[in-house]
Amino acid sequence: MNGFDDLFVKDEEKKDSRTNQKEDKPFDKDAWIEKKKQERADAYALIDEGTEAISQDGEAFRDYLNVQARFDRYSVSNAILIAHQMPEATRLADFDSWKNNDVSIKKGETAITILEPGSEYTREDGTTGFSVNVKKVFDITQTVDGKPVKPKVPEQRTAIKALIQTAPCGVEMNNEATKNVLAFYSPDKDTIYIRQGMSGDDIFRALAQEIAVAKFAAKDLDRKDCGFYAYCASYILCERNGFDTGDFNFDRVPDRFKDMDSKAIRSELSAVRDAVNDISQEMNRQFEALEKSIRKRDDAVR
């Protein structure tokens, strides 16, 4: 061994010592629990921050509705989290999921925080609850060579036909009943009247809103109480099915929410989400029935 070799031997011994110390370090359960609590606290604070942001700015509110339109299975809280961190997101997955699909996250990208249900537990009063965990995800645009996902939307005529089938009441064309509006739900007649000769975008937008009004009426909410819900529901349904949303205006959103706390705002948005998903599920059943009918027809031709 020459005069310098011993320097490297000592450094290697130090490295082994550090490695052993790291491996021997016991798992600190209390520290882990505290870390998870802090992660949840930070996520809840971000939800409140995001809720405040969308309640004070019409464009931020539109961003939220766009996210809810793209991510129909996500809760209101998660849609708010996404809208507050990356409103343009189109496809999300955690690091491992992207890796398992041979997709790499670009260096330096910041993860998006969302929440996911954890394990079931029993409360002190005997009821069942579910824990909540913080999950870190990345949008496809944060991956190497990733591009925004363009949603597949139905043909306009097909979408309008499916939407009509979701109405919980009658739907009739009547220009006399719709002199000053594009469409109108009459509780007395339990019928939606729609103006003749409109474009596909106008028909879908107006019909979606009045179907939402009719569904809320079944829950004893009149137009004054549910008008805002129905307007937002129409917007989400238009976005989800590829119809124009340029005429929607959310400048008055701050007035709508000015006396409400974050929890109350999210409760209202949950009512909108539930109405939209109810209509969307009915529309999807109509799409599936139509596709089945087309397949039968094509098989018969063969």
Low-confidence stretches: none
Number of DSSP E strands: 6
Largest sheet: 3 strands, antiparallel
Shape: globular
Radius of gyration of CA atoms, rounded to a whole number = 26 Å
Within the largest sheet, what's the order of strands?
1-3-2
H-E string: HHHHEHEEHEEEHHHH
Q: Can you characterise this structure?
A:
With 302 residues, this protein is of the alpha+beta class. It has 2 domains: 29-142, no CATH class; 156-301, no CATH class. The protein is 56% helix and 13% strand. It contains 10 helices and 6 strands. The strands form 2 sheets. The protein has a 3-stranded antiparallel beta sheet. It has a 3-stranded mixed beta sheet with strand order 4-6-5, with helices on one face. A hairpin with a 4-residue loop joins β5 (183-186) and β6 (191-194). The radius of gyration is 26 Å and the shape is globular. The model has no long low-confidence stretch (mean pLDDT 91).
Structure characteristics:
alpha+beta, three-stranded mixed β-sheet, 6 strands, three-stranded antiparallel β-sheet, 302 residues, globular
Element layout with pairings:
Elements: H1 5-24, H2 29-56, H3 58-70, H4 76-85, E1 92-94, H5 95-100, E2 112-122, E3 128-139, H6 156-166, E4 170-173, E5 183-186, E6 191-194, H7 200-217, H8 223-241, H9 253-257, H10 262-301
Helix pairs in contact: 2-3, 2-4, 2-10, 3-4, 3-8, 6-7, 6-10, 7-8, 8-10
